[in-house]
Amino acid sequence: MSEHLEFNSDSETFTHKKQFRFRLYVAFIFVLILFSFLIGRMTQLQLFEYERYQGLSEGNRISVETLPPTRGKIFDRNHILLADNQPVYALKLIREKMDNIDAAKLAILVILDNVSPERVHTFFEKFKQRNRSKSYTLPFTLSEKQAAQFAVISHKHPGITLSARLKRTYPHGATAVHALGYVGRINSKELKKLDVKAYRGTDIIGKSGVEKYYEDTLHGTPGIQQIETNVRGRVLRKLETLPAIPGENIHLTLDIELQKFAESLLGDMRGSIVAMDPQNGEVLAFVSMPTFDPNLFVDGIDQKSYSALLNNPDRPFINRAINGRYPPGSTIKQFIALGAIENNYISPNKKIYDPGFLLYKDHRYRDWKRSGHGLVDMNTAIVESCDTYFYELSLDMGIDAIHDTMAPFGFGSHSGIDLHGESKGILPSQAWKMEHKGKPWYRGETIISSIGQGYNLTTPLQLARATAILANRGKIIKPRLVRTPKTEPLEQIEIKKISNWEKVITSMENVMHSKKGTARQHTLHLPFKMAGKTGTAQVFSLNAGDYDADAIREKLRDHSLFVGFAPVNNPKIAVAVIAENAGSGSKTAAPIGVKLAEKYLETQLQDLEE
Amino acid sequence: MKIELPHTQQVYRKNKGFLEALHIDGWLLLGILLLLATSVAIVYSASGGNEAVITRQIIRIGFALALMLLFAQIPPNIIYIFTPWLFLIGIAMLISVLLFGEIGKGAQRWLDIGPVRFQPSELMKLVLPITIAWLFAHSKFPPSFRRLVLGAVLIAFTGSLIVVQPDLGTSLLIGMSGLSVLFFAGLPWKVIAASIAAVVLSAPVAWHFMHAYQKQRVLTFLNPESDPLGSGYHIIQSKIAIGSGGLDGKGYMGSTQAHLEFLPESTTDFIFSVLAEEMGLIGVIALLVLYSLVIARGLYIASQAQDNFTRLIAASFMMTLFVYIFVNIGMVSGLLPVVGLPLPLMSYGGSSLVTLMISFGILMSIHTHKKLLTE
Q1: Partner of B357 for a Cys bridge, out of A434, B2, B17, B68, CB 3.0 to 4.6 A?
Q2: Of A12, A42, A228, the CB nearest to B276
Q3: How much is the ipTM here?
Q4: Which residue of chain A has the CA closest to B250?
Q5: The CATH number of domain A256-609, selected from 3.40.50.2000, 3.40.50.20, 3.40.710.10, 3.40.1280.10
Q6: Rounded to whole angstroms, how far apart are CA atoms A457 and A428?
Q7: Residue-wise pLDDT tens digits, A61-103
Q8: In B, which residues are within 8 Å of A35 by CB distance?
C-alpha cells in the first residue's frame, strides 16, 4: 500500500517534473525571443539610425560661438593712443536657467552696490517679460573688484554669467571728437544695411568721424569657436577655432598736442580751426568748438545727457570744420587778386582811388574804413583789406571770372576729406544762381561777393585747403585725416606767371609783418615769416552807420576769420580760423592762427634739431 | 537508511570543494561577478570618474555579496517554515507604509525603522513569489482551480497595496513575479490565453484609473518627440546616447551624453544607455548574452531542484530577473514607458541590489542543499 502510494507519488512527481521542465523550456525560449527583440531594437538604433543619433549627439554637445574681432585702435601722427579697447565686465542673464529669479536679483543688488536699486528693478521688470531662453546683458559695468566678488558666488546662480568684453574708450575725452568720431550701439537702420555675418557678436559700430568713415578697416573679421557645452550651456572645452581677424590700427594725421592747444585757443568761443600740411594735405588740427565726450555714447547715452547736448544752444554736435558754412569775408580777397592779375584784369601796380565807398546804381557800397584808403594798389588792397579796390575789380571781372578763379582752390566743392557728410559751401556764379534761385544774376551781387559776403559760404576746411594750395603754389592737395603710405600724384593749378603768385603771397606776408598789416601786432616776436589774411564776416546785414558791436546781441556779431601759412618760403602749416561772433578777424582769429603756427613750427624745429 | 547516511555524507564531503562548502554555485557566482565588475566600470564612467560614488558602490556590492552568502547557508526548508510569517510581516509593513510611510518622489514607499529606511515593496519582491510557491508546494500538476484562485487573490491583494502608494511599476513587476509562479505551477494554457486577452481588453479601463503622471509617462512613451524638453527628454537623450554608440561605441569613458549631463540618471536607471554609448552594439550583445547565461544557469538550478517549493522559487526568481532586465532596456531604448526601474546588477544603488543578491543566495541554497532534502 505504502509502496503503491510511493510509486504513484513517484510517477506523479515524474510527470510533474516533465511538465515543469517543459514550461522551463518555454520560459527560456520566451526569454531568448525577447532578448533577440531587444538586440533587434539596438541594431535599429545603433546601426541603421547611427548617423542620425551621431549627429544629434554632436549637436547636443557642440555649439558654435562667434568670436567678435577686436576693433582697430586709433593713434595720432606721433603714435599717441586716441581710441582704445578696455576690458569691462558685465553680467548676462538667462531667465530659463535661473532656479530663482528673486535670488538672482538679490545677488545682483548686492554685487552692484554702486547702482541705484530702482534701475535694477526696472531692468528686472522688463527682463521678466522677455524671451526666457535668450541672454540679456545688464546695462551696468562691473569694476574688477565686483567681477571678482561675483566670480566667487557664480556657481550658486545658474543663469547669471560674467562676461568680459572690450569697450571702446577715448582716453583724450572730448579732444578731437569731430575728427575721431565715436562708436555706439548698432541701431535698426544700420542693422538693415550692414553685413550681419561680419557683425555677429558685435553690438557697436562707428557712428561718426573717422570711426565711421574707416568702419570697414577698423572692424575686422569675426572668428568662429566650436565649444563643447553641457546641458546647462556651460562651456567645458574649446574644440576648433577659427580666430577672429582684428581690425587694423589707424594712424591719424592729427597731432593731438597741437589739437589740444588749438582747442584751448578757442576756449569758450564757438568756432573752428583747421590746420594742415600744405605739402600733402595731412590735417594737423581739426577743431570744432564746443566739443563733447565721445565716451558717453559707447554704451548708449542716457536720455538726460543726450537732450542736454542736443538742446545746447552752442550746438556741440555740429562738425563746424566740415559743416559750418560761413561767409568767408575778406579771407578770399587774395584768391580774387591772384585770378585778376593772372588773367590780366588788372596790373598789380595799378592804383585805384578809394573814397570809402563805391557808388553803383545809386547805392553806396561801403568800405570797412569810412574815411577810405585813398590810392591803393593790389598790395595795399590786400594788406589793408581795402573793400573798394575789390568792388571795382569785381565789376571788371564779373562773377563768373571770380568763380573760375576760386573754383580750382576748392571753393564750392567737396574737399574729399575722409569724413562723411562734408558740406560743399557755395561759390556763386550766374549758372549757380539760375539753378538754385531761379533768378538772373545782378551785378550788385558781384560787388558783395568780392569781399566774401552775399551768397558766398565756405567751410573752415575749404578755407584751410585753399590757403594750403596757395601756399604750395598750386598743388591741389586733398585733405586727409588718416595717414596713408600711398600718395596719389597731385593736380596742379595752371600757373601763368609764378611772379603773380609770389606777389600775392608777399602781400599776405605784409598783412602779418608790415607796418600797416591787419595782423601786424601779433607777429612781432616770430622767428619765421608768416603769410595770412584776416576777415570779418557780417552775420547780419546792417547799415554801416548803425554798427556798434557791443550793442548787437552776441549771436549777431561778426564772425572773426583768419587764414594763413608759415613759413612763407617753405610752408609747413596752413591754417584757417573761424571764431563765431567774436568780432574782427585781426582781433580774435589772427592771433589764434599765429599762435598755432608758432606752436607747430616750434615742435617741427625741435624735431629737426633732434 | 540510518547506516547509509554517514556513508553518503562521507561521499558527499569527499566531493565537496571550497565553494560547495560555502553553499555557493560557482557558475552562477562567475556570471554575477562578471556583471558586477561591468557595473563598477560603467558606473565609474557614467559618474564622470567620481571615486566617492564608486567606493560607495563597491561597499554595497561587498555587503550584498555577504548577504548572498548568508542566505545561501539557510536551507530552503527553513524558509518554507517561515514563509507564512514572512508574508504576514510583509503585508503588515505595506499597510504601515500607507499609514506612516515617508513620501519620496511623489509616493509613499519608504518605511523608517530606527536607523534603517527601506521600502517594504522591495522585501515583497522576494516574499510574494516565495509565498505563492509555498501555496503550490504540495499541489498536483495542474493545480486545482481553487488554489489558483487563492494564489491570484494573494497576488492581487499585495499588488493593490503597492499600487495605492502609488507605485504602479513595482506593483506590476511584483505581480508578474507572482504570476510566473502560477505559470510554473501549471496554470492551464487556456487560462493564460484568456488572461492575456482580458488584460488587453481592460487596458482602457486601467487608463481611466491612472494618476496623471502615469498617463503622462504612457503618452510620452507613445510619442517622446511631442515634448522634447519635458517628459520626452529622458527618452530622446537616452536614444541619442544608444544610437550614437554605433557598432563599437565611443570607447570606455567616452560617453559624452553622460559626461555632459544630457543623459539624466545616467548612473542609475539609464546606465544601459551609457554602456550602449561607450561599448556599442557589441557591448550590448555581450551584456545580453551574459544575462542569458545567468538566467539559463538559474533555470537549470530550477530544473534540478527536487521539490515543488524550491523549483517554483528558482524559476520565478529568474523570470523576475528577466522581466526587470527587459523592462529597463525596453524603457531606455524607447520601447516601453519610463517606469523608473534600475537595471539588475548594473545600476548604481543599494536596495534593488540587496534584494537581487538575496534571491541569488536563495537560489544557491536551493542548489546546494537539495541532497539533504532527499529524505
Answers
A1: B68
A2: A42
A3: 0.89
A4: A54
A5: 3.40.710.10
A6: 9
A7: 777 777 889 999 999 999 999 999 988 888 888 877 787 888 8
A8: 288, 291-292, 326
